[in-house]
Amino acid sequence: MPVLFRHSLKDSDDEIVQNLDHIYGVEPLKITSPSTDFEVSLTLRVLEGRCLLHPDSVVLAHQHKAIQVLMNILPTRGVIEQGACLDALIFMLDASANQMDFEAFHGIEEVVGLIRDKQVDENLRLKCGEFLLPLIGHVNGRDGQPLATIHE
Fold it and tell me: What number does CATH give the domain 2-141?
């Protein structure tokens, strides 16, 4: 789990060079490139699978501020990453700590914003609607609580 957040889901702003003194030094500089769209999407699919197959991974992901990372990806990346992000988020919200983080980052408003944006891909807008259905709580006549656990 830490590898996912340390490499593929790392924000590219973390790698901004503040000092150029290393150019004239003897120490080699570790050069890294930001993750491609495909790498981010694949990483999100791995995160989704881990959370689905191993429920304790949801809590572990919370320790790595997963919701914050996913909420940064959702409005800024392409359609492929946004779809994978929504799929991963639905399993992440199985933990109450992640639910509180999702609420703190105004997650529902972000998803609704994607639905309302006419320039967003239609399939992504439909996926946003599908994402919101379990969060509403009264789906198919159920009287369960909003954000009820996914594994029920």
Answer: 1.25.10.10
